[in-house]
Design a protein that fits this description.
This protein is α+β, with helices and mostly antiparallel strands. 59% of the residues lie in helices and 12% in strands. The protein has a 5-stranded mixed beta barrel with strand order 4-5-12-7-6. The chain has a two-stranded antiparallel ribbon with strand order 1-2. The chain has a two-stranded antiparallel sheet with strand order 8-9.
Amino acid sequence: MSDYIPPLQDMQFVLNELAGLQDIAALPGHGEATPDTARAVLEQAGAFAAEVIAPLNHPGDVEGVRLEGGRPRMPAGWVRAYASYVEGGWPTLAVPEALGGQNLPGVLAAPVEEMMNSGSIAFGLLGLLSRGAVQVLSEVGTPEQQRRYLPRLISGEWTGTMVLTEPQAGSDLSAVRTRATRAADGSYRLHGTKIFITYGDHDLTPNVIHMVLARVDGAPAGTKGISLFVVPKRFVNDDGSLGAHNDLRAVSIERKLGLHATPTCVMAFGDGEGAVGQLVGEENRGLEYMFIMMNSARFSVGLEAIGLAERAYQKARAYARERVQGVEQGGAGNERVAIIRHPDVRRMLLNMKCRIEAMRALAGVMAASMDQAAANPDAQVREEHQAFVELMMPIAKGWFTEVGLDIASMGIQVHGGVGFIEETGAAQHLRDARITTIFEGTTGIQAMDLVGRKVGRDGGRVIGALIARMRAVQAELQAHTDAELRAIGERLNQGIDDLEAAVGSIVKSWASGPKPALAGSVPFLELLGIVAGGWQMGRAALAADRLLRPDPGSEFLTHKILGSRFYADHVLPRSAGLRHAVVAGAGATLAYAESAF
């Protein structure tokens, strides 16, 4: 097993040169987010991920979670690791100070989250869900609910869940059947079965706070009749102590392709008189409230993909350096060499590396915009940043996860046959990555949201503003004196042209009916992701060139430019085929499907 090495230098480059950490530090309440603070936080988080979490990843996958006495038991070492995570204050990193958190900006929390996922996505999932529960309760919970649940959810002493899916419903939440009956004391009694509940129960903490979608007796049909309830595993007394167990239990642990160290539970609510829950917000607005959790989770799933991809890349690179096989083509003599000397292995590793860097940069820029949207004193600036975040969220959730899955698969290819053997650990990354494209809405769902709500309905206004930002970078690259940067700019120019043509096609077709645009929605999502990644790699090349002038010997900065050129030559050219699929291929998809199925 190779060790995990936190990519701290690249993370600091993204923070300081692309995401604008200095601008975030100027926002109200974020004055402590200095480069020195960021460096210290990243170093400590990297050490924790590498030394505490990463060593548990493969053993946890092998041992898995087991159900004993009706309660899931985590693999060896996980209880201690989670206790260290809480003691280190990591759950409180980006929580507002008023709620007992450290109030660091999201732009700094994002690379920390990536590293925790590189250590183990199975471990990182727990924090993701708890943060979502905190966000919902802090925004729409009653003062009593906030007093009773928030302090220990924020500290990590308790954990939270997102309880949506049912056997007959899947992603169609309008089909939710779990019942909520009003009780005389103002609470509700819940009856129903939920599936795919990540960390639905475990032995890491004494209490689990479930955020449950259910339908109040007599509620309207469909999504309009869904309400949200907070349902604790154990009741919380007025003095904060834990009382009796609520009427809910983990019926079984799902047998999954990956994430074997994550207890994904089938949960039964109300075997007896009913699980006691309190209404969150107003009746019949549950889906609206749950989307507070889901939107946050979608970005976090994107960070999962980057973390997994980084770990798969590092494992493949380490193997390629040590595996001796064959002679170097064009080399002198017949000496056998490490496979990293072979051109195609290098191509695969570079492909993995440059796409990870593109995703990391885009995630950093998105996180910075989230901070600006939340804290900038200028309302217009807040609105512009929020529009950018909403446009790019399907890219973070959809494109990042598809790329992460492909990188994990490519990691096995670098290993060759031994990558297909579980003992190497490469296969685990692919198995774990597979669910990320499904979590919080499949890639198809993200693509429909992108094409419909984010492009078609607004006539391309917001994406047009983004294209203008891309054009400014492309123009700077093409006007550069360095031939390497000009070449990057030329390829980026073609990618933007392809994106612009696809946007025009979608806006035109949307006016007459959504089907053609939706048929080409996944290719469009990939197209936007690739070009947005190229935009960030172009910005990175410009920043690296500027920094190289006083420091011409920097290997990192030189490699940053070379990686940007590789992205321009090997990834951006895919834009032409994707443009064709959106503009010309969508109609053919619909026509063929009429007779093919």
